[in-house]
Amino acid sequence: MVNRCRFAPSPTGQLHVGGARSALFNVLFARATGGKFVLRLEDTDRARSSLESEQSIMRDMEWLGLNWDEGPGCGGPGAPYRQSDRVEIYKQHLEEMLEAGHAYEAWESPEELMVLRKEAEAQKINFLYRRRTYSETEVAQYRAEGRRPVLRCVGSSEDIVFKDEVLGDIRVPAEDMDDFVIRKADGFPTYHFAVVVDDHHMGVTHVLRAQEHLKNTARHIQLYQQLGWESPKHGHMPLIFSMGGGKMSKRDKAKAARAAARDSGLERSDLAAKIGMSPEDFQRFMKKKNDDLGTAVAIAEAVGVQLPEIDVIDFRRSGYLPEALVNFLSLLGWNPGDDKEIMDWDELVSLFTLDRMGKTAAKFDREKLEWMNGMYIRAAPVERIVKAMQDFAAFNTARWSNESPERLSAIATLFRERATTIRALEDQVGWLYEAPTTYGPAKSIKKFLLKNEGAGLAALAQTADVIQSISDWTEPLLESELSAFCEEKLEGKLGQLAQPLRIALTGTPVSPPIFASLALLEKSEVTRRIQACLDHFGE
Fold it and tell me: How far apart are CA 514 and CA 213, in angstroms?
């Protein structure tokens, strides 16, 4: 039998990096076992689901290389792959549940359910809904009020026992199984019911998801039993925690934005005006009355800080390579059996097995991700980095947005050795586009320019004449002509020229190799910067 697994996100927002890790493990399992990977969109939350979110999730999965065999855009035997298109299928099986006595209508209003929950809380017990009996008069009254009943599943009278592919044997006592809702008052099935029906009709053999879903699995197995279907195998993967120990949450962005607002030194009313928000709404955000992402982003842009990456699109905007992110995510809850950390896609597929999955929460180490991404940047062909630079420019205001592929290739070759992300690479290239207006640090200026009666400045002044005479502005000829100048004028000491040149070009004594740096600038710009440096120090 062919293994079939799936990833079934709710299109209510961006693809969280934890969801991406779940999708990755499902794809790896399918590829490693010669199986199929299905993408399904669970859009039964009609109020929050959106086409924009669907497209974003699929775009992020494609960027990561997590391609599906069946699902939206490519079809398959289990179509349709959006739950909102499968309502008639659910209705059929909901009727079967009613006819078999496994489900019943419940009429409590949200307010009445809240009272029951508070009563349980007062008694310090978990609230578990149990079937109530309604008189004909009560039902008639509810109908007259315009109430619409939900459909609840009769809780299991026996313990639910199953073998988890990761965690081992699991038992959920019958007394912990409540009568849960399987059809909402609006007529749509709940997640619990729809996911079971869909997995059955799509022939899913393995349900691999995060441990936060473990509490749902007993309910799902119960539904399989009541519908007379064979249950797929289940495996629950470890959660992903931040280095501080908590779950990585989208609320982290709001938290970071509030901290940035406090540290900015701006009055709250001034910052609110700067981002076009009323002081009252801004105050509500600062007092944690909401975690609105738009507000968090606006604050970050206004005060010049970067919010923590949480969603896949955040990492893409920051200039991480998808292959590096996939490699990093693969090690969050799984290991290859040794200490190897850098693995390409084919290696991951060849090594992936469920028995190497961990049981405890994994830590999202951002420093390790940066290190790994830097390794990928340095090892990749230059053409791959050019593509990444172009992708970065599509999401950001990058200095190189209008550069040719040839120019980008030269920039990538020169700067990638010190870059851990494409954003970090972009931060390095500022001097290519903007001439320095200050020079430092002071200690370096004294050492390389002013020491020995301004020997460095004198070397710069003499170099300007040599540069003017160079007709073929290429790195090899620049190296040849300037090295010859050093032999003649500076006793062959290239450093006595290279460091003053770096300061003139970049404002600091740090840059990539000097001849390649010179070649990236126009000759006229190099001349202008040398003269500006000489003028600044009064030479």
Answer: 56
CB distance 132 to 154 below 8 Å: no
Q: Which of 91, 247, 250, 447 is catalytic?
A: 250
Q: In what order do the strands lie in the sheet with 206-210?
A: 36-39, 4-7, 206-210, 233-237, 160-164, 168-172
Residue whose structure tokens are 């869909």: 198
Q: Reading across the β-sheet that carries 150-153, which strands appear in turn? A: 103-106, 150-153, 181-183
- Distance (Å) of CA 535 to CA 70, 445, 453, 527, 531: 67, 14, 16, 12, 6
250 is catalytic: yes
User: 125-159: per-residue pLDDT in tens?
Assistant: 889 898 888 999 999 999 999 999 999 999 999 99
Domain 442-536 CATH (choose: 1.20.1260.10, 1.10.10.350, 3.40.50.150, 1.10.357.10): 1.10.10.350
Cα distances (angstroms) measured from residue 184 to each of 106, 151, 334: 10, 7, 37
For the stretch 57-102, pLDDT in tens is: 999 999 999 999 999 999 999 999 999 999 999 999 999 999 999 9
Dist CA 476 CA 483 (whole Å): 11
Which helix (H) or strand (E) segment holds residue 105: the answer is strand 103-106
| Residue 358: φ, ψ to 5° | -80, 170
Tokens of 511: 């840059």
